[in-house]
Amino acid sequence: QVQLVESGGGVVQAGGSLRLSCAASGRTFSMYSMAWFRQAPGKAREFVGRIYWSGGSTYYADSVKGRFTISRDNAKKTMYLQMNNVKPEDTAVYYCAGRLMDNHDYWGQGTQVTVSS
What we know:
Layout: E1 2-7, E2 10-13, E3 18-26, E4 31-39, E5 46-52, E6 58-60, E7 68-73, E8 78-83, E9 92-100, E10 105-107, E11 111-116
Parallel strand pairs: 2-11
Antiparallel strand pairs: 1-3, 3-8, 4-5, 4-9, 5-6, 7-8, 9-10, 9-11
C-alpha cells in the first residue's frame, strides 16, 4: 500500500506561481513513477506530467510545458509541482498518482487550485 497526500493548493492570480507537494508513505521503495493529473469542473481528468523515480526523467502535457516543473526529493519521498505563469484554465483539482513496479496505481485525495483573472 502507498498513501499519497497533496498539499499547497489555493487561490492564485493569473500570471502568478504556486507549488504543490505530494508526500508518499508506505511501499515507496517500490515506486516506479509519480504523476500529476487535474480535473476541472465538468471535464474529464487529464494528465499534467510525470516523473520517473529512478533517474528523474520528466514528461509534460503540451498545455503546461514550459510553465510547470515536476521534481522530487527522494529522501523526503515527496514530489513537487512548480506552477509558474498560471492561467485561469489551470483551475482544477490537482491529483497526485503513484505507480509501483508491479503496475499498481495509487491516488491522493486532491488539492484545489483556483486561478483568478
